[in-house]
Amino acid sequence: MDVLDELVASLPAGVVATDPATTEGYRHDWSRDPDAGLPVAVVRAEDHRQVQAALRWAAAHAVPVVPRGAGSGLSGGASAVDGGIVLSLERMRTIEIDPDCQVAVVEPGALNADVKAAAREHDLWYPPDPSSFEICSIGGNVATNAGGLCCVKYGVTTDYVLGLDVVLADGTLVTLGGKRIKDVAGLSLVKLFVGSEGTLGIVTRAVLRLVPLPLPPATLVASFATVVAAAQAVVAVRRTLRPSMMELMDHASINAVEDHSPRGLDRSAGALLVVQSDAPGESRVAEIAAVEAACLAAGATEVVVTDDPDEGEMFVAARRAAFPAVEARGALLLEDVGAPVPLLPDLLAAVTEIARRHDVEIPTVAHAGDGNTHPIIVYDAADPDSERRARAAFDDILRAAIRLGGTITGEHGVGRAKKAALPEQLGEDVMALTRRIKDALDPDGILNPGAVL
Ligand SMILES: Cc1cc2nc3c(=O)[nH]c(=O)nc-3n(C[C@H](O)[C@H](O)[C@H](O)COP(=O)(O)OP(=O)(O)OC[C@H]3O[C@@H](n4cnc5c(N)ncnc54)[C@H](O)[C@@H]3O)c2cc1C
User: Minimal CA–CA distance to 106: which of 71, 84, 144, 137?
Assistant: First the structure.
């Protein structure tokens, strides 16, 4: 029996696929990494025991394992590896809500949107809201420590993970944390696995904290002549306030959305801010008034306010549509750089200068209230010079963020796309510590090799 037959025989029929028609569909995540390898098999596990069986087999034969959720990742974190297996968690989707403890106990393949919907049935809310919430899985969210639009007030995925079941590289299942809101027994191992991008273990269950449903928000949309003026308004607002959303679109991304799926945005604006407040009663009125005053002081050319949640959602949907709209313009290199909020204007000014210097188009959107930006470099894949300039701009933006004391990735993860820049951000000692942790948990390096470090 060859090694692969052993894997097939150890799992129920239909769990392991080896035919190229199936494996081809599991090579790439959303970033379409051109260097993705060819997996020898895809294991679509149905429960944690099957995950353990696959890991034991992989450990025995030193076969690389790339964990995969819904494949919506933007940094090549789930790119397949030549000769390895892809371990897909997409079939593990159960969701149990415990309203008394205000938690959801979720298998990793459940979509973020499905967890939100299940919580809503109990008047509860799971806040982390990547723009991709309808197409990404909780396992992927945990593995990348996903962010989103409401993080400015409500925090990111790690702030909602109370417990995890993780299958380690040798097939051992460990249960970390649980339904307890407060628990400081032992090291913070839950935090270690959140954001580990499939390099330390496979998440097979997550205990997620839920909160009461937020109030319907009021929405403010402000137009600015320049992206730097909009960013200055963000800095002013964030000095004293924490709105429930604070998103930015620059001129090019506004126009990309209007070209792709028109929504009546102001095409002439240099930048738009979309700000929401879900504070109760008079506090909401006061918060929106303070945001409006800060926008006008920073030079806003127009400010529109609405209390109608549906009208507000139209602007938020336009912001969410930016990435697919820009995607329609050509090949993309997607950045996820961030900086401390007061330096957001400097980061955006640096991106504008880099676009000019390399003569490339870089539409930019941002979770501006967090200082997290997505410059999206567009290039012509058929033109080598266009690609060369785009790659030079990509590297320069990473360096600009590091120079400002920022980060090469605020929420998408390092994956394979940003790996080369990680040592420059973390430094030698932190890279060495990271490798020691990796070696302790995955001594043979079978878990997502080539990702992160
Ligand atoms: C249009 C669009 C908008 C987006 N907007 C946002 C946004 O606002 N905020 C944001 O944070 N992200 C955003 N993303 C990126 C992406 O959706 C997130 O990174 C998401 O968390 C990935 O989830 P996934 O299930 O698709 O994971 P995958 O892409 O399948 O995997 C992502 C990483 O997690 C690992 N992994 C997956 N499941 C497990 C598991 N069970 N155990 C261990 N490791 C695992 C993989 O190996 C890989 O390294 C966006 C993507 C798109 C396409």
Answer: 137
Pocket test for ligand 1, best of 31, 74, 107 (most atoms within 8 A of CB): 74
The pTM of this model reads 0.97
Rounded distance between C-alpha atoms, residue 202 and residue 219, angstroms:
39
Provide the 10 A C-beta neighbour count for residue 453.
16
Q: How far does the centroid of ligand 1 lie from the alpha carbon of residue 151, in Å?
A: 16
Angle at 412 between CA 409 and CA 415, to 5 degrees: 85
Give mean pLDDT in consecutive 10-residue pieces for the chain, a chain of 453 residues: 91 97 97 94 98 98 98 98 98 98 98 98 98 97 97 98 98 98 97 98 98 97 98 98 98 96 94 98 97 98 96 95 92 97 98 98 98 97 97 98 98 97 98 98 98 97
Instruction: Write down all domains in the chain, each with its CATH number in brackets.
Output: 95-212 (3.30.465.10), 218-403 (3.40.462.10)
**C-alpha distances in Å from residue 30, one per residue of 58, 161, 324, 330, 453:** 26, 25, 11, 14, 20
Å from CA of 73 to ligand 1 middle? 4
CA 209/CA 344 separation, integer angstroms = 30
What do you get for the CA distance between the two ends of the chain, in Å? 35
| CA distance linking residue 13 with residue 442, whole number of Å | 29
Taking each helix axis as running N to C, give the angle between helix 344-358 and helix 227-240, from 0 to 180 degrees, rounded to the nearest 10.
Answer: 160
Which among 349, 197, 359, 172 is positioned nearest to 270, based on CA atoms? 349
